[in-house]
Write the structure tokens for this entry.
Amino acid sequence: MSTTNTLPPAALRPSAVTPRDIARSAAVRRERAAKLKLWIGAACTLLVVLPIALAQVLPLADANAQDLSQRRLAPLVAGHLFGTDQLGRDLLSRVLHGGQVSLTIGLLAVLVSGAIGIILGAAAGFYGKWIDTIVSRLLEAQMSLPLLMMLLLVVALFGPSIPVITFVIAIAQWPEVARLTRSLVLVEREKPYVAAARVLGLHRINILLRHVIPNVFKQASLVVLLLLAQAVLLESALSFLGAGPQRPFATWGRIISDGQDYITTSWWMVTLPGLFIVLLVIGVNLLGDGLRDRSRRKKKEA
Amino acid sequence: MTTYLIKRLGQGLLTVFLTVSTVFILIRLAPGDPAVAYAGPLATTEQLAKVRQQFGLDLPVLEQYWIFLQQLFTGNLGTSYSFQAPALQVVLERMPYTLTLATSAILVAAIVSIPLGVWMAKRTDTGKELGANILTIAGQSMPDFWTGIMLLTAFAVLIPVFPASGFATWGGLVLPTITIAILQVALISRMVRREMASNFAAPYLTVARSRGVSERTLTWRYAMGNSAIPVFTALGTRFAAMLNGVVVVEVVFAWPGVGSLIVRALETRDYPLIQATVLVTALLAVLVQLLIDLAYPLLDPRVRLGKAGSA
């Protein structure tokens, strides 16, 4: 670092590399691509999440208020921005309230799967031996299970309540976090500071919880956004198949599966809620991808 | 080689056995009574008892499990409550449809995603690659049931080119295949891009290029040769997952496959049918996994099956 300080500022230094060359270099382009992804991602996410968060405040009709005289009104008619469904309920209001359910389930599921994944993955990576064997076998076993079928089975058998669905999605997702954490911890535990901490007499649990996990946490938590996107998709697929949270909760999957019967006459009932899901999931995926690109590059530079 | 095969088969069968047993226990743990689902809500207590007796549901769970194990080894999984036919037979009748759909989807996915991935890898850090990248992210962000309904409306209702549901003609295969392929292309092409890009950046490729090897050979023989195993594994694993029933897409297109069968079996609490479906799909998935592993030596002569590092 000190050597750069002795050089004259870049503008005074003679160089064959013009600012234009720098702007076109791969590193700058990569940085710009990551930034673009982050911006588009943030824009898409906010466009969906803000109205959902404000659903209670916005001047909307009640999501469950039926008005049979107002059945299947097209979008943009008075008072109904997204039109109405087959029972005369305001579609926008239903989509936003459904979004609250979907997002809550998604966030809870990601929290649970993240916690399980980080704890088990870190334990497997740090302690090795039989703990690693058990966790790795569990991961493998889950790979060979028919996933969606098992999820449907559990939901169908234990009832589609929000805790069951959250739990089921978390169980579907923990392997990804666990595998990543395990590989990060495997590298981390060989670093000198771990050996130093042991020489100082720290207990292994303390080293793991207070030093190793905080060091890998940031990298492991990057995957969370991608998992959130998957969780939203999974929840909507489950509720499309009738295994989602039950009435009175409106969920995206069920709004679409209800609208399916009227697709020839009322296109908006399927198209608009679907676009909402797509926008949210693209946004979250782009954010996750952009952040990952960024951290990967930072790591390379370091 | 033979020991390796026996070992892998043993492991696979153990996985299948554990899966089937887990499902058996889960079903029995859950609330809800298949007798009610079978006899209807108006059935009297005597009728319910009779139904339970007929299906052997009045026996202790352990005894039911013992009977189930015996059935497992004789290949007779009991009679489906709702189809009134041997459960295994019902599943096997549906299997060809799921196989057809999965095969055509994976073929389309491979044909599109491999060139697309290579194309993206060659244009790393350009605007075009970024565009393609965002498109693939969009592809993996669309819920498949929604894509299915949209395609259905567009190409079966508004412009009636393809049949809307079922599998009466080969045209019926087109829309479900596209629906599945969109997601698979998005996932696999990103994976191909990553593999190929790391190979393009490898020193051996620079050496080969400096010695005048043509760009085409570099791409398809050198880089692709070294990416073959991960790409093939991804394709195979995806295919195996599809055999477990492309549940959602089968439901949307009323495809007479295993996926829509399991949804119906779960709704009617058809225990034998659920168990037969899980058994057949788990067996097939394990078999496909084994075939993938067996193909490795063909893709890369350095791989020796059963030796350390590859097993």
Summary: DSSP finds 13 helices and no strands in chain B. Residues 95-270 of chain B form a domain with the MetI-like fold fold (CATH 1.10.3720.10).
